[in-house]
Amino acid sequence: MDEARRKRVRAQRSRGRGTSKVDWISDLPDSLLCQVLLNLTTKDVVRTSVLSKRWGHLWKCVPGLDLGGEDIKQYYKYVIFVDRFLDFNSEYHIESFKLSYPGDGNCETQVDLVRRWIRTVVRLGIKHLKFLDYSWGCGTFHLPRSIYTCKSLVSLKLSCVSMPCLKLVSLPYLRIIELISVKFADNLDLETLITSCAALEILLIKTNHSDGGIQVSRVRSQSLLSFTHVEENGSAKEDLVIDAPNLEYLKLKAHQTASVIIKHHGSLVSVDVNFVFNSPFHRRFDPSGLPKRDMIQNLFVAISRVKSMIISCGTLKVIYDYARCQPLPLFHNLSFLRVKFYEYLWELLPTFLESCPNLKSLILESTENLKTKGLSNFSGSQGFLPSLEHIEIKIPLKGFVMEMKFVNYFLEKSTILKKLTLCLDDSRKTEKSVVVKKLLTIPRLSPSCEVVIL
């Protein structure tokens, strides 16, 4: 313990006699305080300088920068601040560099400036790099090629930029990649980048084909644990092949992708599926299309061992139509299910529940105000729900007959249900007592079931 810290501890103990309050933060060494401050934005870190004389210059020693264009309005002040930070840390390793650039991109000097900053942090051994560029046209700013050979990099998060042509990759410690509206020279560059990162565990790719975003066609990684693929305004209709034998979490939102082929699926634990096999929303699945039936069958088999699932109403439509012509695989391990509705298409749900014999928890929610289509269509199913213990319907109920039938279905078919949580629509507050009375008088098959109305 250095002499300055000993003095602080003695002074604290002297002040603390007779009181139970202890300022443990003041006893922490500067190095540990800097690591704590690393979790704050730079704007908040600078604010700590007013706390005491000790904190007055401590913020300068934080090995990270998290600065958005809105934090410093004047462009020249923004540039001066970043340059001073890099100059102060020119002999140290930088842990984190998160930048949202405020320039307008009309000056070549600005482009060179940002590239210089990125090359500098790469040279200083950056671990966590996040760069968001909303000033140029989407993908017109090209990152320097040194980004591919930053051997210290642990996480890379980029948005609205273009990657340079890939010639050499050396990213031995890169664990996290997040790419949002990022452009590559071609599909092979993205595939090579993923394959070359031997430590990669988390991959997130969001593409927007209206901006000329790249089509993700193959993800191949021996180390990958989590993969999120979100496709907005898709126009490409290619297959997506996932070859990741250790994958545990998969999120898919890709309405225009023709099919998803999962080569190794034994390790999958959790999935979030919003996928319609390139079927337009206004058109139902055609059961006579054998190739599409096979693609759907293969995907459902691949995810049939998961324990947790989030599924969209669109995917539920595909399941419902598919089940009319071919049996669904059983989801024996599924214990948690969350369904997101955008229409009152609740008649789609029982078909899928029949394939989940060990489901324990079910959450139903809406992404927006539900459309009234399908209000009178719900009739439930004849089978019981023998494993469900907890049901939460987060969709505000308005007292429609179809809603009452829906609640009635769960209460009369769930043999061991412990708790059913409901919520009422605010617009029906004047009728609340009537609706509540109707809900509470519905017979319950499970004698231990508790109905909670929010």
Word description of this protein:
The protein is globular and about 70 Å long. The chain has a domain at 24-62. The strands form two sheets. It has a 15-stranded parallel sheet with strand order 1-2-3-4-5-6-8-10-12-13-14-15-16-17-18. Strands 7-9-11 form a three-stranded parallel sheet. It contains eleven helices and 18 strands. The mean pLDDT is 84. It is α/β, with parallel strands linked by helices and 454 residues long. The protein has helices at residues 3-16, 30-37, 42-47, 75-88, 108-123, 187-196, 290-302, 313-323, 349-353, 401-413, 432-440; strands at 64-67, 96-101, 128-133, 155-159, 176-180, 202-208, 218-220, 226-232, 239-243, 249-254, 259-262, 270-274, 308-312, 336-343, 361-371, 390-397, 419-424, 450-453.
Roughly what is the average pLDDT, rounded to an integer?
84
* Strand tally: 18
Distance between the termini: 55 Å
Q: What is the share of helical residues?
A: 25-40%
**Multimeric status of the protein:** single chain
User: Given the C-alpha coordinates, what overall shape results?
Assistant: globular
Largest sheet: 15 strands, parallel
Number of helices: 11
Strand order of the largest sheet: 1-2-3-4-5-6-8-10-12-13-14-15-16-17-18
Strand content of the residues, in percent?
A: 15-25%
| Secondary-structure element string | HHHEHEHEEEHEEEEEEEHEHEHEEHEHE
Which structural class is indicated by helix and strand composition?
A: alpha/beta
**Uncertain segments:** none
Radius of gyration: 28 Å
